[in-house]
Amino acid sequence: MAIIIKSRFATAMDTADALGVPRKRAAELIKLLDSANAPEKKNGRVQLKATGSLKRKTAKRQTRGRTSKAAR
Amino acid sequence: MAGPPRPPDKVFLNIPYDKQFQSLCLAYICGISTFGFVPKATLEIPGGSRRLDRIFKLIQNCRFSVHDLSRVELDKKRPPTPRFNMPFELGLSVAWDRMGRKKHTWFVYERVERRLAKSLSDLNGTDPYIHGGTVAGVFRELCSAFIRPGRQPSIQQMQKVYQDVEKHLPEILRRAGAKSIFNARVFRDICVIASASADKTVQ
């Protein structure tokens, strides 16, 4: 984890060093930021949030599913 | 052959520490961090040794300084007085730029246009950056001042960093047991979060 933080957040770690923030606290702060922006996980899988367009697509698909093949 | 990576440049932030200025203070920290710089402020100076010596040392260690002279009004608390700290620290920076051995560049920021000519006429001929007292104005004027090779973030990227910091501010304050951002630990934590957000936002 420490290596990932160091490589992805190189400037942030340099900033922490320049300000005298202990590396452990800096890593905690970075994790706080990173976890807030990470996609939600349920049962170990990333859950996709339905956006407006996705919702409309799903609704369309469901409507299509209800009509019989012959009608289409 | 490339040498070891250079540590990020430091920017001395000379701004008023009051509640009305909180959002602009955050804007300065976020904007400066998005450029890849490290904000430094007198907030970090611990008590003990002579304050003036520490302030001058802080300025000497910074490549740039940003001086916001927006607060020229009289303080409401009795006795009503203007605040001289910010113009005084600007004077120290100008002296260091003129006489110091290291390169130092200073920028003056104001809220109101043409007011500097009245409040500090010694600086006639120096164009202040007018932010109009808004967060977007601070971002715009930081972009105007820091024209340099390297990171050139957009206003939108700065706004994203600002939103990230604002979102985590209650947790930062809670962890530090503080009520305002004008606290040494809170200031440093905000700088780290802003820099991390900038690392994610600006490629």
Question: What can be said about this structure in brief?
Answer:
Chain A is built from four helices and two strands, in the order H-H-H-E-E-H. Chain A has 72 residues and is mainly α. Chain A has a two-stranded antiparallel ribbon with strand order 1-2.
How would you describe this structure to a colleague?
- The complex is a heterodimer of chains A (72) and B (203).
- With 72 residues, chain A is mostly helical.
- In chain A, 65% of the residues lie in helices and 6% in strands.
- Chain A has one domain.
- Chain A has helices spanning 2-8, 10-19, 23-37, 52-66, and strands spanning 41-42, 45-46.
- A two-stranded antiparallel ribbon of chain A has the order 1-2.
- In chain A, β1 and β2 form a beta hairpin.
- Chain A is rod-shaped, with a radius of gyration of 22 Å.
- Chain A starts with a helix and ends in a 6-residue tail after the last helix.
- The mean pLDDT of chain A is 72.
- With 203 residues, chain B is α/β, with parallel strands linked by helices.
- Chain B has a single domain (10-201), classed as Rossmann fold.
- Chain B has a five-stranded parallel β-sheet with strand order 2-1-3-4-5, with helices on both faces.
- In chain B, β3, α3 (85-99) and β4 form a beta-alpha-beta unit.
- In chain B, α2 (51-60) packs across α3 (85-99) and α6 (155-176) packs antiparallel against α7.
- Chain B starts with 9 loop residues before the first strand and ends with a helix.
- The mean pLDDT of chain B is 92.
- The chains are: A mainly alpha (72), B alpha/beta (203).
- Chain A binds chain B through residues 8-12, 14-21, 25-26, 29-30, 32-34, 36-37, and chain B through 7-8, 10, 33, 36, 38, 40, 44, 164, 167-168, 171-172, 188-189, 191-193, 195-200.
